[in-house]
User: Fold Purine nucleoside permease, putative from Caulobacter vibrioides.
Amino acid sequence: MPASAARASFAAFGVRWGVRAMRLVGLILGLWLGLGAVAHAQPAKPIPVKVVVLTTFEIGAVTGDRPGEFQPWVEGLPLTETIAVPGLRHPARYSPKDGVLGVMTDMRARARESVAALLLDKRFDFSKTYWLVAGIAGVDPKAASIGSAAWARYVVDADPIYEVDDREIPADWPYGLYALETERPNVKGSAEGSSGMVWALNWRLVDWAYGLTAKVEIPDHPGLAALRAPYVGDPNAQRPPFVLKGEALGATRFWHGAKRTQWAQDWVKLWTDGAGVFVMTDCEDQGILDVLDLYAKAGRVDFQRVMVLRTASNYSRPPLGAPAFPRAFHDEGAVSAFDSAYRVGSVVVRELTARWDRYEANTPDMTAIGGTAK
Assistant:
């Protein structure tokens, strides 16, 4: 090959090699820059939730039809955004404007797993969140009337329990229900490995919430008056609906009757060492509080910011001297209880969110009452 041709061939090879080298350098540089960008990218910041409202069920849709527990909150606050949360059977609803997250947990044991699933979702920051459990319940006619709303100071678990067939209980026992690791009723036992059994809520926060809502007017109507009328031996059962403080007893089974109400009164007194008074019976609070307490110990929840508001849909026993049946649950009572849960609870939610600069760092007490948010 002539020298000139060789030189030309070599030059062409050099050009091709140079182009490929530049492409390789460019690729390496691009990859390096891309990796650098990934390394310096910040993860999405969790949503700081001011208030979580926990309800347990709905009748039909969550908007536009007959309301249950959840619909008044969705439409009333309103909760405008829908957020799917893994582990929840129903989408959560959120208000970006107010920082309020509404959740329908489902009933009984499902409430426990729903709250756990919510707390495991890393999209939310619950470090400063206030928690409001707002649902309907049965009420002791000795304490209050249908439609009334009670702020709990204690939640007591009634699920870990021994039970003797009512036809076989000893003659000197008041009922056949008694604590684990005991041998008779009204002895405080142990439920280690099963439950915390009793949770004392922040009394200062409870007093604040009660003080804020004590004068909230809960509508009365002839249907409620008719349900109250037979309870002539129970003055509080005959009052129009009102707001009070009193304990919530959680049991996954629905129970009713004079003997069971006596047991509930005794059970709450036993596990609170005489400090608590049975007012409301529901099916979820024990599971919800157990989960919130566990996650509080892990630093994910501030347990001092947990509130439980239960509203009366039915009485826990018949009028004195009357048989336990007919039916204990009535539509008039449920409708009133749905309304009063939102009517009373929303006052607290609006106050917290409207004055977040006051309540973000400092949990309120009675000294913080300065008028409710409109």
The radius of gyration is 29 Å.
